[in-house]
Design brief:
single chain, 2 domains, 10 helices, Rossmann fold, 6-stranded parallel β-sheet, globular, DNA polymerase, domain 1, two-stranded antiparallel sheet
Length: 223
């Protein structure tokens, strides 16, 4: 197995624990616009894809989508700093990778400005060499374009890059781009929900990423 030299991360549910805020934001849109309520599980199925995809069911008249997005973002930003935090061990894990000389980046379905806010809040904005947001690509996850763009911007090698994410959309995007994939099991999804994504590695805790790197570097050729 080739050495891992680049680690790309999803943001929500992988680096930052923002799931409660995301669900509250969706509920606020439902109540504000009189939408038929969805369960948490239904909303979570779309986590990792752009908001436009999640609201597509109700885009039935001019201006509807813009109204949904505005309502969601206004509520989300108003409560962001109070409800968002880094997952335990994530910040240390990222800094450990940086100290080892690896390139790091974020590939998210959030808008760039919102993603930067989350990274700044948890102190990781200076620890990423690249950020690819929804407004940086034409085709969002699970299309490979976001991961491919990050790899290209870094001048990285697909074979020595891993994309770590918590959703099936992350795993599919990474596999389609041709990089290794790691399933982050500290997020909102359990192993059985992610198995269809066929990740190369299962990661129970953020600290396991550094141990994974050590294992790949110590493995004999052909293993």
């Amino acid at each position: 197995m080739a050495d891992i030299r680049t680690v790309l991360f999803d943001l929500d549910g992988t680096l930052i624990d923002s799931i409660a805020l995301i669900l509250e934001s969706f509920r606020h849109v439902e109540s504000t616009h009189g939408l038929t309520p969805r369960s948490d599980e239904e909303w979570l199925c779309g986590v990792g894809t752009p908001l436009t995809s999640q609201f597509a069911t109700w885009k039935d008249e001019r201006g509807t989508m813009e109204a949904f997005l505005a309502t969601y973002r206004e509520f989300n930003l108003a409560h962001h700093d109070r409800m968002v935090r880094a997952f335990p061990g994530v910040v240390d894990a990222v800094h450990e990778l940086r100290a080892a000389g690896l390139a790091t980046g974020v590939v998210t379905s959030k808008q760039r400005s919102s993603a930067l806010r989350g990274l700044r809040l948890v102190g990781l904005d200076g620890a990423m060499d690249v950020l690819v947001g929804a407004d940086d690509v034409v085709n969002p996850k699970p299309h490979p374009e976001p991961v491919e763009r990050a790899v290209r911007l870094l001048g990285a090698d697909l074979a020595t890059t891993i994309y770590v994410g918590d959703s099936i959309h992350d795993l599919q995007s990474g596999r389609r781009a041709g990089v290794l994939t790691g399933a982050a099991l500290w997020g909102p999804f359990v192993r059985s929900q992610l198995e269809i994504g066929q990740p190369d590695f299962w990661l129970e805790q953020p600290g396991e990423i550094a141990r994974l790197l050590s294992a790949t570097r110590s493995a004999p050729d052909g293993v």
